[in-house]
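Page 47, continued from p. 46.
Same chain as before, 204 aa.
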Amino acid sequence: MKKALIIALASLAVTTSASVFAAGDAVKGKALTATCVACHGADGNSVNPIWPKIAGQSEEYITKQLIDFRSGDRVEATMTAMAKAIASDDDIPHIAAYFASQKQKPGVADEKLARAGGDLFKGGKTSSGVTACAACHGVTGEGNAKAKFPKISGQHNKYIVNQLKAFKSGARANDAGEMMQDIATNMTDADMVAVAEFVSGLHD
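Result:
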């Protein structure tokens, strides 16, 4: 009940608040992505599974993450440096708009693992207090742009697992109301792998 209330309140707060930046211009953004493409690819579809696909991700979520990397609210050596190298805060929404406008390449899941992951994604795990992923990320993993909950469908499974482990350890703590930290804390490594496989194979 407590988790459900936190999720509801956090969603309401970010939905009703004004965005920090105005909507971006994808054409301007493309010209600002020279340092992004080395890891994320020219179209936002990274090849290395430890780096996220950001093609088709919402502008709101990309903007939030770049702001958090620049402020230190989210820390990762490479991305912190890259975000701080952006010339101006005004460039952030343009970069976000460009990658949001790109089409994500679909992921591929291990069907056996994905079956168990699907149960957790859709219904959670009451025995250990894990909330259903679909409650925030949507039934097809499309995310909630206004609430800044990311699109996770089609994402690299390895990246998903790494982020869940980071939330669990506290290495990543830029989630609203510590929602993801609370959820990940109650997940086993097997839970993480299974749900990551299911998410990787989702198509919105």
